[in-house]
Amino acid sequence: MYRRILFSLFLLVTIVNLCVAQATISMTETYKKGIYKTYEEFLNNEPSLPLDYEIKHKKVGYGMFALGGSIPVAYLKVKNKEGKEVGSIFGFSNGKEVYINPWADVMNPNVRYYQPQFMGDFCYVEYAYVMKVNNSRSNYRREMVIDLRNKKAVELTKEWLRDLIADDSELLAEFEEENNKGQKLRLYLERYSEGLQ
């Protein structure tokens, strides 16, 4: 009997530890303040560097003459030399919000960081894509999804969403009947992720 109780306790502790070890940043409401050097640090909510920089907030307009709307962005107030010493970072948290930029090469004061929205196993990011034509630059609104299970980052498109929700025939049929599909991709991603939980 004593051995059975000990074994049961051991099994319970092992299961709890496995569940805690598999918890990702999307499963928490408390973010640790600091800089995420890598995707793994971000995923595990374990920043490896202190956040000793001021955060600046701004809205970036997109579309022709920035008339399409705006996207909130954050910048780190850092000197170029300091940024080069730190190198590339995946993102940071001020302890309340998280900001990421999976494409940033080296930390500098011009890098835009975006606030993701967690949807179960998915991380949705609305961002401004800069397109250069001759000597002019324009921002375009884009949507990206990071699958937190395998780190795959993909552009959120109608085709990708169709493939994702194909196993939910009811939701897929509703999506196919939808007008302005391109404007409702995030909504359908959110609904699909809620169905997985």
Task: Describe the overall structure.
The protein contains six helices and nine strands, in the order αβαββαββββββααα. With 197 residues, it is α+β, with helices and mostly antiparallel strands. It has a domain at 24-156. The strands form three sheets. A four-stranded antiparallel sheet has the order 6-7-8-9. The radius of gyration is 20 Å and the shape is globular.
Write a short abstract of this structure.
This protein is of the alpha+beta class and 197 residues long.
The proportion of strand residues reads 25-35%
- In this structure, how is the largest beta sheet organized? 4 strands, antiparallel
Q: Structural class of the secondary structure composition?
A: alpha+beta
What's the total count of β strands? 9
Average of per-residue pLDDT values? 84
Q: Are there runs of 5+ residues with pLDDT below 50, and where? A: 1-22
Number of helices: 6
How are the strands of the largest sheet arranged? 6-7-8-9
Approximately how much helix is present in the residues?
25-40%
* Whole-angstrom Rg: 20 Å
